[in-house]
Structure formats: structure tokens, C-alpha cells
Amino acid sequence: MIFKKFHLPLRYSVAVLPLLFLLSGCGKSGSGMPPGGMTPEVTVVTLTPQRVEITTVLPGRTSPYRIADVRPQVSGIILQRMFTEGSEVKEGEQLYQIDPAPYEAALANSQGALAHNQAILTYDKIAVNREEKLIQSDVISQDAFDQAAANYTQAMADVATGQAAVKTAQINLVYTKVLSPISGRTGRSSVTEGALVTSQQTNPLVTVQQLDPIYVDITEPTSELLRLQRELASGQLQKAGTNEAVAQLTLEDGSPYAEVGKVQFSEVTVDPGTASVTLRAVFPNPERQLLPGMFVHALLKEGFNNQALLVPQQGVTHNQRGEPTALVVGNDNKVELRLLKADRPIGDKWLVTEGLHPGDKVIVEGLQKTMPGATVKPVEFSAENSTPTQ
């Protein structure tokens, strides 16, 4: 077989030479070291314990502190509505006037019956006294005396019944004035003048709600409730009173609510269907800014962690299983991979509860230059020599 020599033109030879050098250099990569064998430089943050306020944000909904459905206790025609819908009323303030005429007549009738019975009682008492003297003289029989005594006893019973009837009539007459059982804000009236209402009817005439203070019902899993109760009992929670924790609100539009409230763990109910509980917080509401049914976010101040380890977010990555990890520079400048337990974000940092210790040097810049087991040159983070990723 005859081989022929082929000669490339000079311009192609010059172009091929750099490509050959590049190909020859590719076989030496993979060590994680920069060209020339220099140790890569990374930026680290040395962890130190800090005092951090621990908070939890939970969804909630407002509900009235007290609510009263006002219903008539006697039947009759509404003569007058005494309040303006949506206005504030005081406890005991008159809301409606039911026609009192039938009840005034019933009271007069019962008073007349009572007077009649009292007159009979007076006569029977005189008769008993007279018969008692006569029986001692053997003028009348024992049966006659016994009948007079029985009539007197019956008259006393009739007087007692009449007095009860008068009292009932007086109460019914008072009930023609429909009063507010609590202080609060009225809703819409379901009746107008001339409407016929009945005693203990199903539909309320109006609903009165006390809005100051006001409740905020916060839904939380039972496991979280138990944790909060333990922290409160141990003193970790910032207390606002006996068995209470401080809470703040964020309104639906994102604005903060000015007043500070208290969480009352004693008013918790458990929903067996969802295994959740309702934490009931009480907030002052002097300006009536909070109305029943509003959706809010409640921020619970759980207390202060005096040994918190905060790691910049750019120093925390996640493995394929979604677990948080960090690269740490050891005493021999060897890189270690740590599996973390991150409790919650605080600002631009993660609160780490497991996997790191005070004094650890966490890599926050240059992660792409190194890997676990590699040797690096750590440089402490500062605003002058680093620009952390946001």
C-alpha cells in the first residue's frame, strides 16, 4: 500500500496549533484547582451566637368580643325604633318600643283581681277570729270553725296568686321596651314600625356586637400549639400577662395594626376533622378599625434566643433531597459538607438549629471554586472585599 504525503497550507497550520494546545490541557482539568496550582480563595462568615427575637406569623380572622341577637320577649306591634342602624349603643339602652296598651290593660286587670282577693282575705281573717271565740264558748260546732279557717287559708293563696299575676304583668309591660343587653355597634334592623313581632321569635330584631376589644381567631396545628404552650410555661415566650403571649397584627392591605394584643391559650378549641386548634387573641380596637370577619396575619412574639446562629442565605444550598447544606472550612482549611436543620428565615439569613456550631467558617462566596475535601484559602467576609448575592 502506498501512502501519500499531504501538506497543509501555512495558514491552516497556524490555526490548528492553538487548538492542539487546548486539547492537551483539557486532560489535566478536574482537580478543582485554578491554573498554576494556586489554592482557591473563598469568602467565609465566622458564626457567632446572637440574641434574636423569635416570631411566628399565623393567619387569623377577626370576630366580635361579644355578640347579642336581640329578640322580643313579648308579642306586639312595633311602635318605634329608637336607634340608628350601625350606631353605638350602651348596655340597657332602649332599641324598640312595642305597643304597651295590651300589657297595661293586663296589669290593671291583675291589680284589680289582687285587690279583690285581698278584700276577701281581710273578711276571712275577721271571720276566723270571730269563730275562734265562739267555738271556745261552744256556741258553734267544730265543723263551722274548720270551714272558716279553710276559707282564710284559701284567701291567702288567692292573694299570693294575684301578686304573682301582677308581677308577671309588670314584667311583660317592661318587656315592651326592647333593651340592648350589651354595649356595642348595631347592625341592620330586620323590622320597621308597624311590624308584628312574637315572643322568642327565631329571627332577631337586630344584632349588637362589641368590637372593643375584639377577638382574632388564629388557626394552628395541635403540634404547634403544644410547642407554644411548652415555651410559654418555660418562660421562653415573652409574656404580656398570666399565661398570655404578645401578638401584633398585619392587616389585609399589608399595613401594621397599631395596637398590641394578647394570646389567650385558655380559649383554644380543637377541630377533630383537621387536627387544628384556634388560638384566640384579644386586641384593643378603640378606633373600630378591625371589623368582624376581616382576614389578618398575627405575629406572635415567642421570645428571644440568646444563642442563635444566623447563616447568610447565599451560604445555604440544598441537596437533591431538598435538605439544606453548607460548606464549612475546617481548621486545616479543608472544606466540609454539613447537613443543616434550618428553623426559619430571619431577614436575609437562616436560623440554623443543627449542623453548625459557634466558630464555624461558612463559605458564602466562591462555592463554585471548591468542593468537599478541597483545600481553600478563607477570607473573612466584609463589605469592602465582598458583595454577597442577594
Describe the structure.
- Strands 1, 15, 16, 17, 20 and 21 form a six-stranded mixed β-sheet that branches. This protein has a six-stranded antiparallel β-barrel with strand order 2-9-13-12-11-14.
- The two termini are 68 Å apart.
- 26% of the residues lie in helices and 37% in strands.
- The radius of gyration is 44 Å and the shape is elongated.
- The longest helix is centred in the N-terminal third of the chain and has 36 residues, at 101-136.
- It has 390 residues and is an alpha+beta fold.
| Fourth CATH level, the homologous superfamily of the largest domain | Efflux pump adaptor protein, beta barrel domain
Record field, number of beta strands: 21
The SS-based structural class is: alpha+beta
The helix/strand order is HEEEEEHHEEEEHEEEEEEEEEEEE
Q: Which CATH class of the largest domain? A: Mainly Beta
Largest beta-sheet details? 6 strands, mixed
User: Could you estimate the helical fraction of the residues in percent?
Assistant: 25-40%
Low-confidence stretches: 1-32
Question: Averaged pLDDT, please?
Answer: 84
CATH topology of the largest domain: Elongation Factor Tu (Ef-tu), domain 3
Whole-Å distance between the termini?
68 Å
CATH architecture of the largest domain: Beta Barrel
**What is the overall shape?**
elongated
In total, the number of domains comes to: 4
Q: Taking Cα atoms only, what radius of gyration do you get, to the nearest Å?
A: 44 Å
